[in-house]
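Hey L., structure's done. Input below.
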Amino acid sequence: MPFRQFLVSVMNNVGQQYTAQNQQPYYQPNGAFQRPQQYTAQPYMYPQQQVFPPPTMPPAFTWDTLIAPSNQPTPLFTRLLDAIFTYFTSTPPTDPSGFDPIKYASAFTTLMYSDADNKVRRYFIFASQNGFPSPEKFVYDVMPIYYRTNRIQYTMQGTLPVLTREGFHTTMLRDTLGDPDVQCRRFNMFLAAHGARLLDPLTGQPFPSLVIPRAAFPAGMDQVTWERQEQMNRAFNEELGEYLAELRRVGRWTHDVTMAGMSSGVWVHRDLM
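Output:
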């Protein structure tokens, strides 16, 4: 046999043996035999680009109505009052429960209340001018009378009367209903001076430095609120008179002065308590 034919025969024989070996089944661990599957190239699938919705922008802040037609605070007014209360109770000396007399005097002065409108300062000045041996003690005694007769929520910490968060809300709502013009000016002056540190409890961010428009407050004095305040003032005067009479009886106060300096009135139009 010629060498060339021999070489071709050998190559064909090797090729047939290699093909047969590749077609033999291979052993699987479970004892079964399986013929290998022929690999078929798959086309490359490019990942689809993910589409994100456009970001949602928060609505622009605006000062809306602060008191509802029912004479109740709106959620926005409640947030503002909560922010003011937290601002003061977080200012050293801190006390999250409320305002003791010293904090009350400081807070209401910062809120632009005059000495005539700031109950603690008014009572302290009255006691100082009329010879009370301890004006501070007089304030501690009279503030609970004021809170109780005016139905303002408070607690006692030993001998200290403390205006609570609810009591602060009651006071601010009542003063706003009683004289919205004055309260509008007070809130705006306070925000102009301290608004950057006043955090909105809903967002955790400072309230925007926007003037609260007069339209956000009631158009005028609420007559029902005014009449109720006059009734509470009379109750205060009666109980205060009994307190002063007791002081005279036990000799702790001998000055014969009128109660004009303490007499209850309504907001800025009359003598205040």
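Residues 265-273 have pLDDT under 50 and may be disordered. The chain has one domain: 75-269.

-- N.
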